Amino acid sequence: MKAEEKIRTVLAEQQECWNDGDIDCFMQGYWKSDSLRFIGKSGINYGWRATLDNYKKSYPDKAAMGKLEFDILNVEPMGTENYLVTGKWKLIRESDEPNGLFTLIWKRFGDEWKIIYDHSS
User: Fold this and answer.
1) What is the pLDDT of residues 55-93, one digit of tens each?
2) Rounded to an integer, what distance in angstroms lies between the CA atom of residue 85 and that of residue 106?
3) Rounded to 5°, angle at Cα 102 from 14 and 100
4) Across residues 14-33, what is the average pLDDT?
5) Ramachandran angles phi, psi of 45, nearest 5°
6) Which of 4, 39, 44, 45 has its CA 20 to 30 A from that of 52?
7) Degrees, nearest 5: CA angle 121-5-120
8) 112-120 β-sheet, strand order
């Protein structure tokens, strides 16, 4: 499987995990490192654990999580070890439909691809 296909597969798996209400599963797409960076409306989070904790605080239950949809706009190689992915996200919930854009930097670790940088707005 090519790198782009693997990355798209991980994103599809993340979407499925989210829609099952499983943040721990969703987080498997991220690099388990203190060097992971996540930038969102509340600022910069450093580290996998801090990112997980922030997700759980922001989305305490399945109703708050809603149904996640990704629209991948671009998957672009940056050399052989990294990819840049841009897209749109949307949560479909009973009371609202928050949405925005994301930029992800992916890094290859052996046969796996993980998100090492996430800027979502």
Assistant:
1) 999 999 999 999 999 999 999 999 999 999 999 999 999
2) 8
3) 100
4) 98
5) -105, 135
6) 4
7) 5
8) 43-46, 37-40, 112-120, 99-109, 82-92, 67-77
Q: Tokens for 82?
A: 């990294």
| pLDDT score of 29 | 99
pLDDT (average), residues 16-30:
99
Domain extent listing, the chain = 3-120
Residue 32, pLDDT > 90, answer yes
Residue 59 C-beta-side C-alpha neighbours within 13 Å: 21
Q: How long a stretch of residues is the chain?
A: 121
Alpha carbons 82 and 116: distance in angstroms, whole number: 10
Beta strands of 14-66 (E only): which ranges? 37-40, 43-46
CB-based contact 72:80 (threshold 8 Å): no
Residue 42 has pLDDT above 90, yes or no: no
Phi, psi of 7 (to 5 degrees): -65, -45
Q: Is the pTM of this model over 0.70?
A: yes
Written out in words, the top-level CATH class of the domain with range 3-120 is: alpha beta
